[in-house]
Amino acid sequence: MSDTITVDARGLSCPQPVVETKKVMNAQAGGTIVVLVDTVTSRENVSRLGRNQGWDVSTEDLPDGEFRVVLNKS
């Protein structure tokens, strides 16, 4: 599965970004999930979830204090 799914979790307080990301992960056998968050805590928690579920995780700092967390699984 090579589709990229974007989860826009900006403005959501923890644990909501993790909950929304987990819903998408559970529905996907693999592929790419891009999660947009706006707090360091959310970035760390979503990254930890991805690693714990066996996904490759990378993060990118965006302007205005936002972050992109990219989860990949083949």
Description:
The longest helix is centred in the middle third of the chain and has 13 residues. Helix 1 runs parallel beside helix 2. Strand 1, helix 1 and strand 2 form a beta-alpha-beta unit. The chain is built from 2 helices and 4 strands; from the N terminus they run E-H-E-H-E-E. It has a 4-stranded mixed β-sheet, covered by helices on one side. The protein is an alpha+beta fold. The chain starts with a strand and ends with a strand. The radius of gyration is 11 Å and the shape is globular. The protein has a single domain, classed as TusA-like domain (Translation Initiation Factor IF3, 2-Layer Sandwich), CATH 3.30.110.
User: Based on helices, strands and strand pairing, what is the structural class?
Assistant: alpha+beta
Q: Which runs of at least 5 residues are low in confidence (pLDDT < 50)?
A: none
Provide the gyration radius in Å.
Answer: 11 Å
Shape: globular
User: What oligomeric state do these chains adopt?
Assistant: single chain
The spatial strand order of the largest sheet comes to: 1-2-4-3
Order of helices and strands: EHEHEE
- CATH fold topology: Translation Initiation Factor IF3
Percent helix, as a range, is: 25-40%
Keywords:
alpha+beta, 4 strands, 74 residues, 34% helix, Translation Initiation Factor IF3, four-stranded mixed β-sheet
